Amino acid sequence: MTIQASNKLQVKDFITLGVLNAVFTVIFILLTVVVGIFPVTGIFAPAIAAIPLGVVFILLMIKVAKKGTLVVSGVLQAVILFLLSGSWTFVVAVISATLLGELIVGGSYKDFHRVTISYAVLICGYALGSFAPIVFFTESWRTASVASGYNASYVNAFTEILNGPILVGILAVSLLGALLGAMLGKKMLKKHFVKAGVILRNER
């Protein structure tokens, strides 16, 4: 009974999930705003944000380390993003990415390799949620963005830059950013969090 209970999310786990996912999402949005000042740099926002966010993600995964951690995280992040941006593509992409990530982790939340792959999938989900509408629904995205108050020349610059091959490149760079972020997270955990009892399983 004790082992079974320990594998289920408790109230304290939901609190941890709420706080760290809020931090994760806010950092992503802030970095996106800063990097997105120019369209040519804005397309790399998910990849750039993935590096510092790796610390938050790795800490979140091993701090809670219970079944459903990724799925609950996906729902929380999607809700926050939808409330702040109103983008349904973020909701679909982020929740889908965390569902896939949950399958990849398979309950082994302290397995660095599996957690890293799930993080890469999540960041690619963020990239798709950000840019897929521009590539596949260009005119509706352009109209909605201008109506929301974005400068028309800025919006047009994004639509001119982005296309299918560029989106593939963005996903590749985002994947690299996620890998770097996971490595940074592991390094920071070893240096600062081991004394707190947060320990990653040894690499195989």
Automatic annotation (TrEMBL):
The chain crosses the membrane at residues 14-37, 43-61, 116-137, 166-185. It comes from the Bacteria. InterPro entries: CHP02185_IM. Keywords: Membrane, Transmembrane, Transmembrane helix. This is Uncharacterized protein. It comes from Sporomusa sphaeroides DSM 2875.
